[in-house]
Amino acid sequence: MSNKFKIEDFLGKKFNKLTIVGDAGIRGNYFRQVKTTCECGVSKNLRLSSVLHGEIKSCGCAQYSNQSTHKEYAISYINKKFNKLTIIEYVGSVKNKSIVKAICDCGNIKEYYLVKLKNSTTKSCGCLKSQMTKERVMSPIYDIINKKFNRLTVIGYIGSKNKQSIVSAICECGVTKDYLLTSIRNGNTKSCGCLNVENKTTHGLCKHPLHHVWNDMLDRCYNKNCKQYKNYGGRGVLVCSQWRYDFKSFYDWAIDKWIKGLQLDKDKLAPGRVGELYCPEYCSFVTNKINMRNKRDNKILNYNGESLCVSEWSERVNIPHGIIRGRIQSGWTIEKALTKPVDKRYSRACL
């Protein structure tokens, strides 16, 4: 409060329960204090601005009166239920907030702020949150009960370990075991182990290079931990069931086509040269150079009824692929870009 106000202007005046009776000086060269007398008879030195603005209304006796009011108000809610909590006792008040004791539907008894019960900020002792969390976790798990993944059929939920769900599943061979749910769903675990035994005893080709090619193909499409998954399985690329579950079938198709150094390609024979399925109809073995040309992000140019990438046209028309790309980016027609000879007398800036 500025010192331009005179204490005499406020002497004898009453503000709430306080009456100003004298000057108490300036505190810290900033705040003017006054002597006050409360209705209850207690005298105190208080800050003048706080008294005038109603920030201080009494010597403190009003707080005790409010506590009495809080108690009567809170007692009126005894035996009333809010969500899962029933109020059974008044405890007291803290900072003008009533505290009550309530019993939850689950039997737990705790103390709560009455206002939080009324506005539903607090609905239970904590059991409701645990129940909702469990239901949220369990819901997708119960949705896959009796569903089959490869050779395993999920028959029950066991629990969780290190935040990973564990389920019980029965294999086609009749063996029942516990498995990590994620391993079953992403295809890392396909059977109780009998499939590996059958593969080894059936064809004895686990060490053949084509088995590595087959495994890499499955990883790209079904193993989310594979670095290439986002470009294959993440885009919806699949492996036909004929190959996915039977390496021997893949081996019989590939053995006459594969030569060491060639790569498996799914795009060259696919419609639009963008393959979404590994299958005998669309797959072939090609060199690394051809495989790179079949990438989905390659620029395909259609001319004279043929659809080839820039590199293939470069070889066909004997024009460097960089110049063809530059011409297309500069707005040239495809025909002009592929047919106009390069003037070798000038630098590469001249197309």
Topology:
Layout (H helix, E strand, L loop, with lengths): L13 E2 L2 E10 L3 E8 L4 E5 H5 L8 H15 L5 E2 L2 E10 L2 E8 L4 E5 H5 L8 H17 L4 E2 L2 E10 L2 E8 L4 E5 H5 L8 H9 L6 H14 L15 E2 L1 H4 L2 H8 L8 E3 L11 E2 L5 E3 L1 H6 L6 E4 L2 E4 H8 L3 H9 L4 H6 L12
Describe this structure in words.
The chain is of the alpha+beta class and 351 residues long. Among the domains are: 7-59, no CATH class; 63-128, no CATH class; 144-202, no CATH class; 300-339, no CATH class. It is built from 13 helices and 18 strands. It has helices spanning 48-52, 61-75, 114-118, 127-143, 181-185, 194-202, 209-222, 241-244, 247-254, 288-293, 310-317, 321-329, 334-339, and strands spanning 14-15, 18-27, 31-38, 43-47, 81-82, 85-94, 97-104, 109-113, 148-149, 152-161, 164-171, 176-180, 238-239, 263-265, 277-278, 284-286, 300-303, 306-309. The chain has a four-stranded antiparallel β-sheet. A hairpin with a 2-residue loop joins strand 9 (148-149) and strand 10 (152-161). The longest helix is centred in the middle third of the chain and has 17 residues, at 127-143. The chain is elongated. The chain starts with 13 loop residues before the first strand and ends in a 12-residue tail after the last helix. 17% of the residues are buried. The model is unreliable at 346-351 (pLDDT under 50).
